Amino acid sequence: MDSKLEVYIEGLNEAQRAPTLHKDGALIVIAGAGSGKTRVLTMRIAYLMSQGVDAFNILALTFTNKAAREMKKRIAGIVGSNEAKNLWMGTFHSIFAKILRFEADKLGFPSNFTIYDTQDSQRLISAIIKEMQLDKDVYKYKQIQNRISSFKNSLITVKAYANNPELMEADAMAKRPRVGEIYAEYVDRCFKAGAMDFDDLLLRTNELLNRFPEVLAKYQNRFQYILVDEYQDTNHSQYLIVKALSDRFQNICVVGDDSQSIYAFRGANINNILNFQKDYDNVALYRLEQNYRSSKNIVEAANSVIEKNKTRLDKTVWTDNPEGGQIIVHRSPTDGEEGRYVASSIFENRMNHQMMNGDFAILYRTNAQSRAMEDALRKRDIPYRIYGGLSFYQRKEIKDVLGYLRLLINPKDEEALKRVINYPARGIGGTTIDKLIVAAKHYDRSIFEVMQKIDQLGASMNINRGTQTRIKNFVTMIQSFQIMNEGSDAFEVAEHVAKKTGLLQELKKDGTPEGVARIENIEELLNGMRDFVEEQKQLADTTGSLAEFLEDVALATDMDNDKGDEDRVALMTIHLAKGLEFPFVYIVGMEEDLFPSAMSMNTRSELEEERRLFYVALTRAEKQAYLTYTESRYRWGKLVDAEPSRFIEEIDDKYLDYQTPMNSYRYKPLVDADIFGDIDKSKLRLKKPVSGTPPKVGTPTPDQLRKLRKIRPTSSDAPMPSLAGQLEAGTIVEHIRFGKGIVAGLEGKGQDQKAEINFENGGLKKLLLRFAKLKII
Ligand code: ATP
Ligand code: MG
What we know:
With 777 residues, the protein is an alpha/beta fold. The protein has 35 helices and 24 strands. It has five domains: 3-106 and 203-290, P-loop containing nucleotide triphosphate hydrolases (Rossmann fold, 3-Layer(aba) Sandwich); 114-193, Arc Repressor Mutant, subunit A; 327-383 and 565-658, 3-Layer(aba) Sandwich (Rossmann fold); 394-553, PCRA, domain 4; 723-776, Thrombin, subunit H.
């Protein structure tokens, strides 16, 4: 073995080493968060290569393309980049899109098929609903798109749907009896447009492997070793692909954690991991128990939460890491305050612990929660990055440029064509487009093909001479781009297209700040393409063609666009955070009906999935975790009362540090520097009040719980203006944390009045009276 690799393998613990060095056959590693599953997968690949397995014969499937790239880099560091280049590594979607391009003709698709993103799919479905003259309030296009997606992920084809009375009845009951027809039309239109949606990439791969035994044999032979990360979140379609490909050699290694299965709503099937041992012969099962990521407190708190789930495999997770601070629980009156608290806490932690912005993550249940956080971070000038919102490639001006690029690669692409045919305006209006769509349907051709024959067909379609000429000019322009594309890389083509189509001029004419921002975005796109071309040439032995770029973009998740070169706080949903780690993690909006989500509390299994989600969130933290909640929050446009999430109460008390309902109630950053003078901040956390309103009891009864969630600030939380008048030098007071003390002096007036007090447990402190919880004795 290579000495470098040896060092790496020595760095693994024994439990990790065993699956890393496992010989052929099927193996599964089931282990809790942070125990090194991903690391084992990486090392195993390097090890296999050191044993003479050709990189071409290894297929590794990861959760994001970024994870794949990082893995590849790490392996390149061990075995050399020339070797690592040839590994097949990526998400299910990206790997099988590549294979489908090779084999597209077998399925009747062009090899340059377009990949429709969710927005394209929704637009097309919406157009079909309109064409069929259905009530769009009954046939909601997003819901229909979801339904079609779930059919596809369960491998229910149009034909299978038509033969399934139960499904049809379900749709009829929902007063949408024509879902089957929409599905059929949608599939047909995608096919004619030479387009596959995300689900097709899996569905069509299954079709390919089922219908063509020689193709199956070819890929079985190619992928002699298959490795899958996050196996607990594979759906049925993905499961079947892995099963088919690994059937011959059975050299399959999957790693996962049933406690982190969080994609059931998108069809992930936890049974895939539970049944793995039945699916293959002589499966070796490995368990890892030592967590290397998080402090003891975090690991144990997370354990205490996930234990509440009934459906789970028994696992032990422990750590040798330092105990770390307790998890801080913080209550705010509103989400605005919650944002301010998080922002100032990040600000302080960054200073006190010499952290970078990138060491912090704010995790939430739903994307909408990011706004309050963003506002607060902006106000404090803390740079941040949102993952998963409207991604760069979804912006209008970017989609416009990409529309032209997609069209020149695949002129049948209906959604791209409709997007750009009259933008910038060139006198081909809506009526003309409708006529073209009708004609395309009539002749069973794509719209572009009809446009190419507009000379012959124009008159019969009632399209006048002038419009015909404009259509011809458009066709000629696209064809000229195609010619250019043959000898140029992605960047060169795109730059040419942005200029020649008039897109840039159109935005320049606009002249508003938004217009300027849009031009900058297009420039950013072009910069990105230039980088892509360079990287492709270095990392992957290809030319950086436009077709390659478009595929990369179509499959990019937001995580992938993170160049990692900017130091920013990360904001994302918990779903996106899977597999990642950060020193400081803030889990915000810890409220009933938000987390757990109101939509997920109907059945035990839904609630258990929410709990797994919480487990994922908590286990992202290395050093310190925060749980924050508010007392009221705007939801659906109304201010509603909020109750703390049951998940907070499920954590054993000893792991928590309640900052409520103490000073934090009116937390004003920076002010507390005044309150506490220059004492050690790490000792600043307020312990649970010894007496007074208990924010939490040992193991509360359901009734107590209900009451507990309703705790509102009591009079003892409110400022005590009267106190000021009663204090003077020499007054003896008692503070909830510092114990008894004697007032040494007073300064300031009104809201700003402070008292200097000599405490028995804390020495001399300056406290802002507005906040100080003092009792005169
Ligand atoms: P998750 O379930 O969240 O995906 P995981 O089981 O995949 O977690 P890894 O991400 O592989 O865990 O590892 C967690 C952290 O622990 C990483 O920072 C990794 O580098 C580190 N780690 C894993 N094994 C070891 C080890 N033997 N020695 C030191 N650090 C380790
Ligand atoms: Mg992992």
